[in-house]
Amino acid sequence: MKLKRLFILISLIAATGYVPAQTTGETRAFADSLFLAGNFASALPAYQRTEFFIRPAVDAEILSHIADCFAENGDSKKAVEYYEQSYIAQTNDSLKKEILFRKTAYYLKNNNYAFALMELLNLEKSLSIGFEEKRNFYLGMTWFGLGDFEQSGVCFEKATGNPVSRQKIHEIFSDQKRFNRPNPRLASWLSVFLPGSGQIYSGEIWSGINSLLLTGFFVGVGAYIVTVTSPLDALFTALPWFQRYYQGGFLRASELAKHRRSEHRSIIFEEVLTIIASDK
What we know:
By secondary structure, the chain is mostly helical. It has 15 helices and no strands.
């Protein structure tokens, strides 16, 4: 066990480029400077070295910074582990909530909306106005990511105390249909019945025209082969090409609709965030 601790210590010293004479305070200050500069890869071993030397004492802020560094470096397992440790070590209730919000923000950043929701629901029901608005802000983003736009709108309205902003947000979410336009299923069926129409419905006019021309061309080729040779020749010559572009057309119409709908939702989301940010 002693050999293992010694190996860890030597590794941390080598990673940070420090000499043993450097004090823990200096190491912490250096780590903080790297962290503030956004150099999380280098800040991480410096914070780890600081945390190693202050044991058995526990510093919730250092643990929180280590979690942030792991999060920025893409190590989700370690990030969550250190956020938990930081939350447990923190004795100040307000700072505990801030750690929870940082952990929630990490989940949201990585589209882990279910985990974000669980964290937010773990908060006590009675919060100060500031924390209550912050919880509703995060809940609004979480429900939006989960596709529950009605619930998202309710939470976003509660995330601001400005009546004008609340009204603007209410108007944005009052038309729930706009979140589902264009409809991928409708786009696909339109192209099934009329090649290219699904793409046009999704806003991709030239793609739709191209699909219509290609499928129309091979229908014409097939009809021509039938008249000059035989239906069997048309079946083996023109049909495979027609089927390729026909099937590809309605599948592409669905994907285009999904992409366009996602863009619409992103625009709405940014609009809501802009309204709330203007009140801060």
